[in-house]
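Good morning N.,

You mentioned wanting to compare the apo and holo forms, so I went ahead and generated the holo version with flavin mononucleotide. This is what I fed in:
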Amino acid sequence: MDLTTSYLGLRLESPLMPGASPLVDDMDMVKRLEDAGASAIVMHSLFEEQITGERLATIYHMELYADSYAEALSYFPHGDDFRLGPDQYLEQIRKIKKATNIPVIGSLNGTTPGGWTKYARLIQEAGADALELNTYLIATDPQESGDLIEKRTVELCREVSRSIEIPVSVKVSPFFTSLAHFAMQLDGAGLDGMVLFNRFYQPDVDIESLEARPTLKLSDSSELLLRLRWLAILSRQLSCDLAVSGGVHTAEDAIKSIMTGASAVQMVSALLALGPEHLLVVREAMTQWMEENGYDSVRQMQGSMALNRCPDPHAFERANYMRTLATWSANNDVK
Ligand SMILES: Cc1cc2nc3c(=O)[nH]c(=O)nc-3n(C[C@H](O)[C@H](O)[C@H](O)COP(=O)(O)O)c2cc1C
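and this is what came out, ligand included:
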């Protein structure tokens, strides 16, 4: 069975890879991932705040002296909470490159335009084969319009793509008013790929201590549906490659993602819960399914359920919406 795929100009043995997570901070884990058939290693994000150590130090200094800042600043993790400091992060890329035969995709989460490009170059110099830009952002400023945020993100991607030679992808969130329009602008900014989607973590509130409580729940397959919709809508309209991230746990999830147009399938929650070897389980089950259903290659399957450039996507979505609502009355009795 030919599972090969092309993602960010890299020829990969299969679409299956770990998504950005601290799994790869540990070399034993990296080896286990390679042995389980990971076709690439995606690093967790290097955060600009980690590099500008002074800034973090300032934050903690302020925290000591100004109670009014304490609440906002307490959201920042202490320097020690990052498993790899910036130098170790770059060193880890070098180590993984040396110890494995698979491409390494760096990941960066910057805060300033200069920071994004400077650290992108450092990640390239460390030997990364590609770079994923993690644009995790909650728009909290009421003065800042969606248009402004989109333009800034597109410009940032253009700048980073221009400033390094390795392929660049961007990991985006689904929360844009016109995601198709935004994706098209990103596609025109020189990017090689897009990762759908970033997963937003939603802090709970503690009603006794009156504090926000960070919560990190692992995903399940239901989160994939949002990704499938957008893969299907975007994959035929964009020229860059698409990767799925969010809700891939089984071979069926991976197959659906490929059929709707993903070139790469990233998994995190499933590997954190079940270990790196789960990649092999998914790979074997996917191969078996493909054999049983008459497929010879991933390429043959890829995009087979993507929407063709629809003459009226609005009407298509409306029809789907109405059909979905109608399934309830047709199938269910109200108790
Ligand atoms: C513990 C943990 C750490 C993560 N760290 C990063 C990160 O550094 N950068 C990033 O872009 N995504 C990060 N993610 C998000 C994952 O890459 C992924 O997008 C998300 O978990 C959804 O995929 P899943 O459903 O397979 O878990 C992290 C997720 C987890 C659970």
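Residues 59-79 have pLDDT under 50 and may be disordered.

Happy to go through it together on a call whenever suits you.

Best,
F.
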